[in-house]
């Protein structure tokens, strides 16, 4: 059984068919990448899986469970974490606090216990901090632990966002353009981290990315979409040489 | 600059990061306890009012400073706390029970009101909360059996375990009552901030969309923040009723709501300290203006008592100065000065310059 199974997914905004009949399966432990020109509907697919959008039709199964009606704030608890194309960190908090929010679904104390700081609340905090330290260690963020997000360079913010997603202890992580705005070196680092997530943490990675060097380096399978419709699926090399994909990016020969 | 070596997670969780800080707050508390025996009863009364403002300010700070939801109508909840506290006491419920009951009542009402209101954001939320303040002014007149109508309600004397506390009769005891309430609310607030619940408030303030993706129920979190905010404000309202002795619809005009917003902005949004700094300014400014007025009249021979709107104008001037020069408020200013001092002479001029924020996802709001 596939970890994530998307069947005939579509969302229409009025007359705009942002996503129109996309189907794919992501197997457990693989790195699956969605590529496509701007406006192809890649991020929209992510927002559909995160349940920010309600699909017009189609089905999303996660670990065999239909999540097409699940509210967005229950998705993290199921084991799907995500990052955002334009970095959505909590700017006026420290890196540590950001990552601790990542562990939000693991909390057991109610707000009353939190206000009174009862033992369960304190244990929550200890447990959350222990989990977060593992992520900080994994992504090498120790130097930034107590820094405010607002003062961090862009490249570090990208990593912090991934760290925050990892702090929720997901099974599937959705990376929305992890390499956008990164330097060549930082992109190479990103490739290593994605590999580590797959190999060391046993995560399944679903990624949207434009940087073909990163895509080729880490992806097991690639799906190309254009104008909301699937074009081609296969290994990175297969997809890149598919005439339909080349046409979508470059247009037809005159 | 001090570096804190943390050897366990508890080092990071505890309220005071080191002994020195704990000592500082202990000294402050000691000074506050000694204060009424040093200064006159009149001044004790004024400081009591500052403490009540501190509590009210913390109430609004939870919402505006930590959850990012502006309320321009918090005087409504001050009124709810005041009237309900007095009504409970009229029913024969002792003060020690009536006060928390008033806070809980206000909190529950606030949370219920929050559900529709917090669907709005920004300027629309501001308008809706102003409307709330206006509605409560009218309700305070209409609901005569509970609020005494236009006449208002007299606050009965407080009795705690046989000790009578009266704002004028025993101003010191009333001061200590307010001090205890302030300390308890501050502790609860600090606890909130170091917990998952408090962090979910911050998350909602800074990015609703990623809060949701991380499993924070945004609607519930906002309602909880509004409820807690109203409960604390209601508590302040209950104490305020006993401070002014008689409350009617005029005690909670919309100007009070605006003053509360000024308080948290002047103090510094997003910190407990900010509520306190703001309360000191808001609570003592009228006194300060009176002193300046007397001084001008006595020494310089200039009579400014003919300008009744003066304190409002000074308030307005102060808020403009703060928004332009110190958006972080007094507490932000204090932190800057402190950092400059600690780093002297290595502080850089641009150290506190706001880094420009990167593009935020606008599509999914």
From TrEMBL, chain A:
Q: Does the keyword Transport apply?
A: yes
For this protein, what is any one GO molecular function term?
Answer: ATP binding
Q: Which GO terms describe its cellular component?
A: plasma membrane
Record keywords: Cytoplasm included? Answer: no
EC category: hydrolase
One Pfam annotation reads ABC_tran
Q: What is this protein called?
A: Lipopolysaccharide export system ATP-binding protein LptB
Species of the source: Pontivivens insulae
Question: According to the entry, what is the taxonomic lineage of the organism?
Answer: Bacteria, Pseudomonadati, Pseudomonadota, Alphaproteobacteria, Rhodobacterales
What gene name is given for the protein in this entry?
Answer: lptB_4
From TrEMBL, chain B:
| Compartment annotation | Cell membrane
The cross-references to CDD domains, in alphabetical order and at most eight, read: TM_PBP1_LivM_like
The membrane-topology field of this record reads: Multi-pass membrane protein
Segments traversing the membrane: 22-39, 45-63, 70-89, 95-115, 122-143, 173-192, 223-243, 249-267, 274-292, 304-325
Asked if the keyword Acyltransferase belongs to this entry, the reply reads: no
> Where is it found, in Gene Ontology cellular component terms?
plasma membrane
User: Cross-referenced Pfam families, in alphabetical order?
Assistant: BPD_transp_2
Swiss-Prot/TrEMBL keywords? Cell membrane, Membrane, Transmembrane, Transmembrane helix
Q: Where this protein primarily resides, as one coarse class?
A: membrane
| Molecular function GO labels | branched-chain amino acid transmembrane transporter activity
Name the domain of life. Answer: Bacteria
| Key word Glycosyltransferase present | no
**Which PANTHER family does the protein's record reference?**
HIGH-AFFINITY BRANCHED-CHAIN AMINO ACID TRANSPORT SYSTEM PERMEASE, HIGH-AFFINITY BRANCHED-CHAIN AMINO ACID TRANSPORT SYSTEM PERMEASE PROTEIN LIVM
Protein name in UniProt = High-affinity branched-chain amino acid transport system permease protein LivH
Q: Which organism is it from?
A: Pontivivens insulae
């Amino acid at each position: 059984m596939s970890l994530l199974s998307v069947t005939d997914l579509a969302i229409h905004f009025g007359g705009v068919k942002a996503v129109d009949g996309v189907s794919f399966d992501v197997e457990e432990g693989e790195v699956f990448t969605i590529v496509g020109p701007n406006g192809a509907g890649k991020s929209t697919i992510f927002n559909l899986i995160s349940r920010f959008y309600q699909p017009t039709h189609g089905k999303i199964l996660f670990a065999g469970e239909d999540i097409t009606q699940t509210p967005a704030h229950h998705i993290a608890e199921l084991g799907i974490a995500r990052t955002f194309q334009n970095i959505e960190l909590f700017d006026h908090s420290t890196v540590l606090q950001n990552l601790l929010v990542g562990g939000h679904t693991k909390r057991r104390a109610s707000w009353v216990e939190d206000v009174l700081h009862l033992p369960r609340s304190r244990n929550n905090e200890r447990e959350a901090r222990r989990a977060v330290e593992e992520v900080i260690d994994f992504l090498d963020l120790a130097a930034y632990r107590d820094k405010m997000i607002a003062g961090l360079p862009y490249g570090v913010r990208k990593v912090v966002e991934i760290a925050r997603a990892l702090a929720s202890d997901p099974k599937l992580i959705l990376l929305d353009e992890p390499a956008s705005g990164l330097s060549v070196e930082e992109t190479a680092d990103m490739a290593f981290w994605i590999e580590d997530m797959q190999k060391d943490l046993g995560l399944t990675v679903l990624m949207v990315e434009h940087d073909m060097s990163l895509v080729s380096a880490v992806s097991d399978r690639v799906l190309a979409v254009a104008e909301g419709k699937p074009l081609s699926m296969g290994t990175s090399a297969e997809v890149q040489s598919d005439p339909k994909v080349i046409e979508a990016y470059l247009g037809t020969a005159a | 600059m001090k570096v804190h070596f943390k050897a366990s997670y508890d080092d990071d969780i505890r309220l005071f990061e080191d002994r020195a800080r704990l000592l500082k707050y202990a000294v402050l508390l000691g000074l506050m306890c000694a204060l009424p025996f040093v200064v006159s009863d009149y001044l004790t009364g004024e400081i009591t009012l500052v403490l009540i403002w501190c509590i009210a300010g913390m109430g609004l700070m939870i919402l505006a400073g930590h959850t990012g939801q502006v309320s321009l109508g918090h005087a409504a909840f001050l009124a709810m706390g005041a009237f309900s506290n007095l009504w409970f006491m009229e029913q024969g419920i002792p003060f020690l029970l009536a006060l928390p009951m008033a806070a809980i009542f206000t909190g529950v009402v606030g949370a219920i009101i929050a559900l529709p209101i917090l669907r709005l954001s920004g300027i629309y939320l501001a308008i809706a909360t102003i409307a709330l303040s206006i509605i409560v002014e009218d309700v305070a007149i209409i609901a005569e059996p509970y609020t005494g109508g236009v006449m208002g309600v007299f606050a009965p004397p407080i009795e705690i375990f046989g000790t009578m506390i009266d704002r004028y009769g025993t101003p010191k005891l009333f001061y200590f009552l307010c001090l205890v309430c302030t300390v308890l609310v501050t502790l609860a607030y600090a606890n909130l901030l170091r917990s998952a619940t408090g962090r979910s408030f911050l998350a909602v303030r800074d990015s609703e969309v990623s809060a949701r993706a991380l499993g924070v129920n945004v609607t519930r979190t906002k309602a909880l923040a509004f409820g807690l905010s109203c409960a604390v404000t209601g508590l302040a309202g209950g104490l305020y009723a006993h401070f002014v002795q008689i409350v009617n619809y005029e005690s909670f005009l919309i100007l009070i709501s605006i003053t509360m917003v000024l308080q948290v902005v002047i103090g510094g949004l997003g910190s407990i300290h900010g509520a306190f700094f703001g309360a000191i300014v808001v609570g003592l400014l009228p006194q300060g203006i009176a002193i300046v007025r007397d001084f001008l009249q006595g020494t310089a021979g200039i009579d400014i008592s003919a300008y009744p709107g003066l304190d409002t104008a000074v308030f307005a001037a102060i808020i403009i100065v703060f928004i332009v020069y110190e958006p972080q408020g007094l507490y932000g200013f204090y932190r800057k000065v402190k950092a400059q001092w600690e780093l002297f002479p290595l502080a850089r001029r641009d150290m506190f310059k706001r880094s420009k924020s990167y593009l935020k996802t606008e599509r999914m709001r």
